[in-house]
Amino acid sequence: MVGDPLEVEDDHAYTQWYREKFKRNIMKIQQNFELFETLLFRLYYDPEIKFSQLYPLGFSGGWDSPLYFVGYYIGRTIEQYKGRDLLVELLKKPPLEFFKTYIDIYMKNPDKNLMTFSSSVNKILNSL
User: What is the CA radius of gyration of the chain?
Assistant: First the structure.
């Protein structure tokens, strides 16, 4: 969210490229959430998988870095519902607090436009 290219008004080539990457990923945010769930599920239930094997699927430029945009979406939602101060505090804590706060938001605010995690992923995140 720092240096959000969707809020930058210049037309430099890098900014345009980065802005398009954001737009592309926001357009497929549901698929990005599905990927997050799939990777988390695998990491939680498969004792043989190594984090380093799955990390590139979510965070490499080769795959358009989809999980950064899951975080971006969640961060924006937390900011919208709970304010920037809480978001900043959450970013200083372990990532699990970030996800639990987001789950709390969509459980208490049945906004049909909010992305949600499946019940099995909610259970995984709440059990950690």
Answer: 15
